[in-house]
Design goal:
By secondary structure, this protein is α+β, with helices and mostly antiparallel strands. The chain has two domains: about 70 residues, Ribosomal Protein S8, Chain: A, domain 1, CATH 3.30.1370.30; about 55 residues, Dna Ligase, domain 1 (2-Layer Sandwich). The protein contains three helices and ten strands. Strands 6, 7, 8, 9 and 10 form a five-stranded antiparallel beta sheet that branches. Strands 1-3-2 form a three-stranded antiparallel beta sheet, with helices on one face. The longest helix has 14 residues.
Amino acid sequence: MDKIADMLVMVKNGSAAKKDVVTSPYSKYKHAIAECLKKNGFLKAVNKKTGTSGFPVLELELVYTSKEPRVKFVKRISKPSRRMYFGTKDIRPVRNGYGLLVLSTPKGILDGNSARKEQVGGEALFKIW
């Protein structure tokens, strides 16, 4: 099962259902992805909390712009069955700059613009807009 895709679909479906907060099981990798989304304005806040079962959960606050959800579409690029890697020259703007490409690089989880500035490539995780 793809845990990252599950978290992204929870965010997308929560936005479509006009939820304020979405919770997902915690991992450091998901937390780094959520922080990248928060930095780029797709999430309002990211918190690590203890769930009802005693295990940690990631609490994600969703963003809305004039009652429209900020996250409308998510496309997973690299999957567990097929990994996709982008070099620095392969990184292009998503939806003419309105979207975001998230990569896992040697310098951590970065968005496409930061990866180009740092001149690093890596595994392309997903596109979001």
